[in-house]
Write a structure and sequence with these properties.
Length: about 250
């Protein structure tokens, strides 16, 4: 039996704010991306972001502390290697997003555009948040792709999502000063109780809306988890001038 059609997958995204598309990456493509990412992580090839720089819960206290040079993200994936560029602009991703947006998709190089890592011991946990909290666009209709380069689940830092949160109206008082959704606030509890963490196999992709609340625990396994993450917007949406969102040249997908 064949799986859901692209139209059905897009409908799921619109309904719950995310959708898992199984086996989206071809086996040879996946292997090449995983091997490239492992090499670049071993080299800590610049530009990188360190766990100690963000100071999320569980991160090393400083770069001088134990685990201080634990990499959180390999930044600027698009500029790192042709393999990353080929993935981010692949016809299959372009076709899926065109079906979602109803027009040409554009790759943001200022946001995500990275290999996201989650290390045992020093990989921090990430609280509930919406990605749009620190992006500046003319509309809040961006979609991100999260490619699992290995197995992902709750215990190794897999993503949790709150279904339907992308379509909800929240008050500023429901977030802290850094715009994390307050987990102990009574009015937030019904939302957090809905949390789901889909198990991902290597090659699975999660498409998720920029307003979908999501979070991740630390990595309790003995292996580094690697994911390739990009963000896209429809061609009629524009990054706002003078903001980080407009600080780099974005890439229209053919």
């Amino acid at each position: 039996m064949s799986g859901p059609t692209v139209a059905e997958q897009v409908a799921t995204l619109r309904e719950q704010g995310f959708v898992v598309v199984r086996g989206f990456a071809a086996a040879d493509e996946l292997q090449a991306l995983r091997e490239l990412s492992q090499r670049q992580l071993e080299q800590a090839a610049a530009p990188v972001e360190y766990e100690a720089d963000l100071q999320y819960p569980g991160a090393p206290a400083s770069r001088q502390a134990e685990g201080g040079h634990t990499v959180r993200r390999l930044l600027d994936a698009y500029g790192r290697d042709p393999l990353y560029r080929q993935w981010a602009t692949s016809p299959r991703i372009a076709g899926w997003l065109r079906a979602c947006f109803g027009r040409q998709p554009v790759l943001s190089t200022a946001h995500h555009n990275c290999v996201m890592t989650k290390h045992p011991r020093f990989g921090s946990l990430t609280g509930w948040h919406q990605d749009i909290r620190y992006w500046s666009f003319s509309a809040e209709n961006l979609v991100s792709t999260w490619l699992a380069l290995g197995n992902e689940h709750a215990d190794n830092g897999g993503l949790f999502f709150l279904p339907g949160s992308h379509a909800a109206t929240f008050q500023p008082s429901q977030f802290d000063g850094a715009k994390f959704f307050l987990k102990d606030l009574p009015e937030n509890q019904p939302w957090i109780e809905r949390a789901v963490c889909p198990d991902l196999e290597p090659g699975d992709v999660v498409f998720f809306h920029c307003r979908t609340l999501h979070a991740a625990r630390g990595n309790a396994s003995d292996r580094v988890k690697l994911s390739l993450v990009h963000t896209y917007y429809p061609s009629d949406t524009k990054p706002l001038p003078g903001t980080r969102s407009s600080s780099k040249v974005d890439i229209p997908l053919a």
